[in-house]
């Protein structure tokens, strides 16, 4: 009886030194890439001029963020301009995403009595606003002006479908016509992903 116990213990002890083929973890699945297409840009800040160049250019960055660059989105004192971007976003099956922020780059030239205001809104088509934000700068200023807006609360795209994204930008300048503000670019993303 005691010999049997020794044999069983020896077998158990020996099995601890056998290399395991099932212990190696599976490589993590890569997160999907956002497939984005700018459908249209409408408004006084992004009107098509007489040239063949479109009023905006869209570029998907290596990080997955999307940058839209404007041509001619410039406002003089006591006026305002706006542009609404309509973006098609293809979402892979089984995934959803959120856009964590919308950043803007502008330039301002303001005297001591002038102000510039930049309002940003973002929403998924057919759903409530995910971003509503307004930033203001007071003169005297002659510089680059960067702003950022964050969705509060965070809003995930609907699962199981691809919905378009809308981004509206409005620039307003209060002061004499010598005061100007120019919206140069809007960047949104990179997206955050999760499984549905």
Please give the largest β-sheet: 6 strands, antiparallel
Number of DSSP strands?
13
Spatial shape: elongated
> What level of helicity do the residues show?
under 10%
Explain the overall architecture:
The chain has one helix at residues 2-15; strands at residues 35-42, 56-60, 66-70, 74-76, 79-90, 95-98, 102-110, 115-124, 129-138, 141-149, 165-174, 180-188, 192-195. 7% of the residues lie in helices and 50% in strands. The radius of gyration is 27 Å and the shape is elongated. Strands 2, 3, 4, 7, 10 and 12 form a six-stranded antiparallel sheet that branches. By secondary structure, the protein is mainly beta. It has a single domain, classed as Sandwich (Jelly Rolls), CATH 2.60.120. Residues 2-22 have low confidence and may be disordered.
Briefly characterize the structure.
The protein is mostly beta strands. It has one helix spanning 2-15, and strands spanning 35-42, 56-60, 66-70, 74-76, 79-90, 95-98, 102-110, 115-124, 129-138, 141-149, 165-174, 180-188, 192-195. Strands 2, 3, 4, 7, 10 and 12 form a six-stranded antiparallel beta sheet that branches. A five-stranded antiparallel beta sheet has the order 1-5-11-8-9, with no helix packed on it. Strands 6-13 form a two-stranded antiparallel sheet.
């Amino acid at each position: 009886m005691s010999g049997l116990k020794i044999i069983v213990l020896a077998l158990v002890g020996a099995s601890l030194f056998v290399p395991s083929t099932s212990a190696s973890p599976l490589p993590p699945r890569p997160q999907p890439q956002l497939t984005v297409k700018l459908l249209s840009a409408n408004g006084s800040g992004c009107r098509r001029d007489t040239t063949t160049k479109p009023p905006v250019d869209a570029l998907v960055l290596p990080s997955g963020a999307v940058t839209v660059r404007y041509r001619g989105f410039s406002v003089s004192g006591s006026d305002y301009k706006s542009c609404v971007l309509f973006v098609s976003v293809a979402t892979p099956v089984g995934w959803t995403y959120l856009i964590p922020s919308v950043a803007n780059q502008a330039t301002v030239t303001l005297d001591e009595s002038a102000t510039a205001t930049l309002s940003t809104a973002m929403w998924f088509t057919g759903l409530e606003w995910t971003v509503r934000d307004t930033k203001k700068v007071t003169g005297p200023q002659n510089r680059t002006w960067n702003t950022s807006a964050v969705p509060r609360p965070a809003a995930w795209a609907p699962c199981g479908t691809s919905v378009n994204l809308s981004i509206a930008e409005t620039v307003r300048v209060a002061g004499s016509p010598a005061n100007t503000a120019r919206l140069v670019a809007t960047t949104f993303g990179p997206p955050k992903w999760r499984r549905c």
